[in-house]
Each structure stands twice: as C-alpha cells, then as structure tokens.
Amino acid sequence: MKTKILSFLKDPRLQEIEVDDPLYHEYCKEILFSKPYLKAVYTRWYEIILSQMINKNGIVLELGSGCGFFEEFFPDIILSDIMPVKNSSLSCDACKLPFKCNSIDSITMVNVFHHIPDVFVFLKQAVKCLRQHGQIIMVEPWVSPFSRVIYSSIHHEPFDPGSKTWEISKGGPLSGANQALPWIVFQRDRKKFESFFPELAIHKIIPELNFRYLLSGGLSFRCFFPFWTSSVFYALEKKVEKFLVQKLSLFACIVLQKR
C-alpha cells in the first residue's frame, strides 16, 4: 500500500529516469520552475545563504548547482556540478576541487553535502582552497524527532543517523546519500570534527521547520496546494519556530568559517 501511494504521489516526469542520469537535473530544473511553491522554498534558502555571506565581492563557488538558480541572486557565482549539466560552468568533484590554495572566499551548496561520498576529503580540500575567514555555507537536511519520521518513511534518499562513518559507500552521484550526514558531522560528532579540522569553526547552525518543502512535494512528488497558501504556512512557521524548531526542524543552514 505504501509503495502504491508513493508511486501515485511521485511526479510523473521522474517516473522513468534514474537519479544518476545527467538528464535527471534537467527534469528537476523543469519541475522546480514549474512549481512556484517549491521555487519559493529555494528562494528562501538562497536568501539565507546570502545573509550569512561575509564577502559578497569575493570568489564564490556553488557545488551541485545542477537544477538550482542561485545565479539569479548572485550573478558572479561559479556554478559547478559533478556531472556535465547545462546549468554549470564547471564540472568538478567536491573531493578534488580544481582551485589554487587560498583562492576562494565562499563555498555554497544546497542539499549537496549529504551526497558527498567522503566529506573528510572534501573538508580538507575546502580548507586548502578557502582564503582566511573564508566560508562554507550549506543548507542541508537536519535530524529532529519529526524529520526522523519523514526522512525514514517518505523520502527516497537513504537516512541513517546511526551511521558510524562519515563516508557513503554505495550509490552514484545522487543515489549515494545519507540525509543524516550533516547532523552527524556537525552535531553528533562535533568534537571529532573540531579535532580533525581546527582550521574550521562551526560559526552557526540555523535549524528551520520548512513545512513548505513538504507541502510543495519537493523535487520528487506532486504539489496539491495552491501557491497562495505558501505565505500562510510561512507566517505560521515563523510564529511557532521559536518553540518547536528543535523538535520539528527538517533542514538547517550550517555556516563554517576558516580561522
């Protein structure tokens, strides 16, 4: 029964395509731009990232830019993706960043960190490439009592908050994932992170409810709510966030800064 329900809810444009196919990005971008509800969520994420960025005049790299539209907010951003896709100017692996030492001011990403197969290697690469006071700013899934239910039962990506490793051993660029990975590295294993990366300070972790993401159907499912309800639910989120964010958060903005 659960499989039938999820199959019905899934966006028909994604029914017959594998997530690791480069064309998947194009379908996702089409979906994103055809769903004002979801585009409003991404707009909010980009605004949060920009609000945390110290040097807006510097060199800014976005990882996993495939189906996004951050360039509408930051035209000079370097768009990159691990696969050759239309929306990126650079094809690169996060674990093999093709930049000189101390050359980047900010590295940004939306829902990418939890797909990186070896975040230890990525963070080492980032430390090397970032300038002093450079930042890594990401929006990622977050672990809370509510998100444990959602990510383990509805979302198609793997979710393993009990994982003993920071590595993702199975899957391709998109199918390989652990949605709990950002929480594992920066919350559960924070002392381990700080011992491995004394050059990087966890400057901020900003959890958010973002029920609107669920209501939008995300990139995978249909949206059954009219767009005018988006502002209503956003206002509701802001009212209850102060009291419920720790229990109900689905995402978080994580800001790291090179010392």
Q: Can you offer a commentary on this structure?
A:
α6 (181-188) packs across α7. The chain has helices at residues 2-9, 23-34, 36-52, 119-129, 145-153, 181-188, 190-196, 211-216, 228-248, and strands at 60-63, 78-81, 90-91, 104-110, 130-141, 200-208, 251-258. The mean pLDDT is 92. Strands 3-2-1-4-5-7-6 form a 7-stranded mixed β-sheet, with helices on both faces. It is of the alpha/beta class and 259 residues long. The radius of gyration is 18 Å and the shape is globular. Helices cover 38% and strands 18% of the residues.
Write the layout of secondary structure elements.
Blueprint: H1 2-9, H2 23-34, H3 36-52, E1 60-63, E2 78-81, E3 90-91, E4 104-110, H4 119-129, E5 130-141, H5 145-153, H6 181-188, H7 190-196, E6 200-208, H8 211-216, H9 228-248, E7 251-258
Parallel strand pairs: 1-2, 1-4, 2-3, 4-5
Antiparallel strand pairs: 5-7, 6-7
What labels describe this entry?
18% strand; 7 strands; alpha/beta; 259 residues
Indicate the structural class. Answer: alpha/beta
Largest sheet: 7 strands, mixed
Q: What helical percentage do the residues reach?
A: 25-40%
Total helical elements: 9
Task: Identify the strand order in the major beta sheet.
Answer: 3-2-1-4-5-7-6
Unreliable residue runs: none
Quickly describe the structure:
By secondary structure, the chain is α/β, with parallel strands linked by helices.
